[in-house]
Design brief:
The protein is α+β, with helices and mostly antiparallel strands. The protein has 9 helices and 15 strands. The protein folds into 2 domains: 120 residues, Alpha-Beta Plaits (2-Layer Sandwich), CATH 3.30.70; 231 residues, no CATH class. The chain is globular, with a radius of gyration of 22 Å. The protein binds fructose -6-phosphate and magnesium ion (2 copies). One magnesium ion (MG) binds next to loops.
């Protein structure tokens, strides 16, 4: 295929089964039927519907380019119809991520997470699509850095002439809505200054030095969009593999170290990101711990050949075990940091209300020690 192809991955939480843990099959069926119609009539070439935890994911190929109104409208309509199904079943949090009732040309900024890229399909085009649940945009910073910039992870950076020049990272500052392009290995330390703070600076795209797109991730921060806590971002990420990009095994390798991400219960805790099989993407323990699944596809003239469940491999068993050990240890901290997020990250929860309520009760140290304590007595 020599015409540019666009791969769009759009996801939303439009209702959980049970609670926020999983997806009801009726929603998947509804999305499947609607996208099948769009494949027969256009504009889709192919699609795959999936879920990770309580999020429904649409993986679509077409020739409409990124940010296409037709594709975004289609995804929005699917999510609206799935919301109706969710409401019929009284699923939990039906329509949760749809922050507006009316579509206005693009789902970006309206709640759903989006990762898209346009490229000319190579002779062999392996791509991996990652979906995470119970975590925030920014969870991909560390793995993307490892894949595309860390020679201890990606042997190709040292060994392969096709990758030796390094890559270019585009980083979004979510607070100021601005982006910067940084080159690796030349500006690796500058890059790490920012992306190590993954709540604010998010790797949105990675390009080869020749300008070929290698990775795209969703950068939507739901709390910033809604102005209050609605649910976690539960981001998605697309990575092209092999040749001038990291090999499949180099793309998966970062997940063998379960890094600690923001999310988990009430989006307010740190926890390890567990790489799991499709069948295990049901975060139930303390609404977690956070999960990541990986869907491998070969593209064939826009057809999605797959998915292959890439974490369905016993060599990730030790990472999963380690996740459970880390999860146990963190859980024992209960409401204490570093399990609970620091104060500035809790601004979209009830904590500011508690601060406001008690604002007048603070005084200089010892000032009130000579006064009798005002302890309410029972009747
Ligand atoms: C985290 C998540 C859940 C909910 C929790 C409370 O992303 O979705 O941990 O925050 O189950 O949910 P509500 O407030 O809907 O009762
Ligand atoms: Mg939910
Ligand atoms: Mg979710």
């Amino acid at each position: 295929m020599s015409n540019p192809l666009t791969l769009s991955v759009i996801k939303a939480d439009v209702g959980g089964f049970v609670g926020h843990s999983h997806m009801h099959p009726d929603l998947l069926e509804e999305a499947q039927e609607q996208l099948e119609r769009a494949r027969l009539r256009g504009p889709l070439f192919d699609f795959h519907v999936t879920s990770c935890g309580d999020d429904i994911g649409l993986i679509m190929t077409h020739d409409q380019g990124v940010d296409s109104e037709a594709i975004h409208q289609l995804a929005w309509d699917v999510f609206m119809n799935c919301t109706d199904v969710a409401k019929g079943l009284k699923l939990y949090g039906a329509g949760q991520d749809l922050l507006s009732s009316a579509f206005s040309g693009n789902v970006r900024g309206m709640g759903p997470g989006v990762a898209e890229m346009t490229f000319v399909e190579r002779t062999g085009e392996p791509v991996i699509v990652f979906f995470a649940d119970k975590t925030s945009a920014g969870a991909w910073n560390l793995p993307l850095f490892r894949m595309f910039a860390d020679p201890f992870n990606t042997a190709g950076l040292v060994i392969s002439p096709a990758m030796h020049a390094g890559f270019r990272f585009e980083v979004l500052d979510v607070k100021q809505g601005r982006t910067i392009l940084l080159e690796t290995p030349e500006e690796m330390y500058d890059l790490l200054v920012f992306i190590g703070a993954s709540g604010r600076y998010i790797v949105s795209h990675v390009y080869s030095k020749t300008g070929e797109i290698g990775a795209a991730s969703s950068t939507q921060r739901l709390s910033l969009l809604a102005g209050h806590y609605v649910g976690k971002d539960d981001p998605v990420c697309i990575v092209r593999c092999q040749g001038e990009f990291p090999a499949v095994g180099e793309v998966l390798e970062p997940f063998s170290m379960p890094h600690i991400v923001q999310g988990w219960m009430r989006g307010s805790h740190y926890g390890p990101l567990m790489p799991c099989r499709f069948a295990d993407a049901n975060p139930s323990r303390f609404d977690g711990p956070p999960r990541v699944i990986s869907l491998g596809f070969q593209l064939a003239n826009g057809r999605l050949i797959g998915p292959k469940d890439m974490f369905d491999d016993p060599s990730f068993d030790e990472s999963r075990r380690l996740c459970n050990v880390i999860a146990d240890h963190l859980r024992r901290h209960g409401p204490f940091e570093p399990h609970r997020l620091p104060m500035e990250e809790m601004e979209y929860t009830t904590l500011p209300d508690v601060m406001k309520k008690l604002a007048g009760r603070w005084s200089a140290p010892h000032e009130k020690l000579d006064q009798p304590a005002k302890i309410p007595t029972s009747a």
